Amino acid sequence: MKVLVVGQGAREHAMVWKIGQSPHVTHIWAAPGNPGIALEPKTTNVDILASDIPALIAFASQEKIDLTLIGPELPLSLGIVDQFHEHGLCCLGPTQSAAALETSKAFAKNLMQHYHIPTAQYIELTQIEPAEAYLRKAAFPVVIKADGLAAGKGVVIAEHFDEAFDAVNSMLSGSRLGEAGKKIIIESFLEGRELSYIVLTDGKTIIPLASAQDHKRRNENDQGPNTGGMGAYSPVSLLTPDLEDRILNTIIIPTLKAMETEGCPYEGFLFAGLMITPEGLPKVLEFNCRLGDPETEVILMRLQSDFFELCYHAARQTLHQLNDNPLKWDSRSALCTILSAQSYPEKGISGEKIEGLPEVNQLPENCHIFHAGTQAVSQEIFAHGGRILCISALGETLSNARQAVHSIAEKIHWKSGVHYRRDIGFKETNHSF
Questions:
Q1: Is there a domain that residue 351 lies in?
Q2: Are both 274 and 387 inside the same structural domain?
Q3: Residue 109 covered by a domain
Q4: What percent of the chain has a predicted confidence (pLDDT) above 90?
Q5: Rounded to whole angstroms, how far apart are CA atoms 115 and 263?
Q6: pLDDT at 175 over 80
Q7: Domain range for residue 316?
Q8: pLDDT tens digit string along 300-329?
Q9: Within a domain: 112
Q10: Strand ranges for 277-360 from DSSP E
């Protein structure tokens, strides 16, 4: 079987790494891929942007690709799944209309409100004056979200009026996020513990993946601005069987039924970013229509079942055939830490050589480095972006996994300095409401 993975980040690297372990897969192409992906067995990068859908369709047709997997949200928002299907190509993911669950915060919030799916109270706004008036009466903190796609940078948790108004003003004026911020959501702040819950569905059968928890804030102790994610771990003890049943029956299943009722049935990975309140009730923070990043980098470390087989059945609408073979998971904990530019998330870096990066065959068996923002020049690897590398490890305990990650991270550096959080997973062993 031939597979095409669309994207170039650490999530896509992890997908390629895991797909390559399947005996069914003969070759993988990554478009455009990255230097780390190019080092994986059976894999070749192809110089096609994730947004260039006509070129991706031509390539998949020419190479007779058996399955295309989409990593990032942009091609989903452009209707890549619809267009692949129109050309008779097998592609896993939601249609353009179904992807509105992620591409429009307003669509998602309105859907949840209409179908009584638990989420925070909110207001939808498009003008600065009404937003200012609302904020002057609001109870802080509040959460301000751009309606459109913002590469993980469209959410601001504002502690006071001045911070909130600055975010609202910069979004609605277009200076902060362009068109993505021309409509915003202001919602009440939810207290509790966050949980990333991801399922795979073919529109009929639902298969949950292992639990994970992301760390969005840039700095330790959950301080600093929101980012695309600074690290994650799996599993999360917070997810008990009772809580999982509640999540499925009050959020996942009702959402999928609502989407079908609205005329846009959902297929592919559905990511629910949840807040578990002190009362133990799950509420939706956001939906993503894809695998999470960096959650994928720990979930796939623990997955022992054939990832390609899972995705192929979903794309062929035959997930029910796997009901008698539940997914197998490594009992160990997985943890990952993102190595980013010191200037992230405000801006990235480019052209700085990465020193101390071990060769793949030099890594311990329980560790892997997934490239997020790198470039290769004359067989040397350079930092290129905000989030540069993701180091993942398995351990008998979270502490063991964290130590394995840090032993690698502390040897890697580049000119302007490496930033990473050293407290990923601390709350798992010291959690409290």
A1: yes
A2: no
A3: no
A4: 89
A5: 14
A6: no
A7: 193-322
A8: 999 999 999 999 999 999 999 987 788 999
A9: no
A10: 282-288, 333-341, 349-353
| pLDDT tens sequence across 152-165 | 678 889 999 999 99
Identity (one letter) of the amino acid at 74? L
The number of folded domains in the chain is 4
User: Tokens 């989903």, residue?
Assistant: 76
Sign of CA dihedral 352, 355, 357, 358: positive
**Which of 162, 163, 144 has the alpha carbon at shortest distance from 154?**
144
| CB distance 179 to 150 below 8 Å | no
Instruction: Return d(Cα 287, Cα 190) in angstroms, integer.
Output: 16
Position 115 in a domain: no
Burial class of 228 by CB neighbour count within 10 A (0 to 12, 13 to 18, 19+): buried
10 Å Cβ neighbour count for 290? Answer: 24
Tokens of 215: 């760390």
Q: For residue 361, give every residue at least 6 positions away whose Cβ sits within 8 Å of its Cβ, in sequence order, or none.
A: none
> Do residues 280 and 264 make contact, with C-beta atoms less than 8 angstroms apart?
no
- Contact (Cβ atoms closer than 8 angstroms) between residue 203 and residue 267: yes
Indicate which CATH number applies to the domain containing 421: 3.90.600.10
Give the integer Cα–Cα distance in Å for 64 and 45. Answer: 16
pTM of the model: 0.94
pLDDT the model gives residue 431:
53
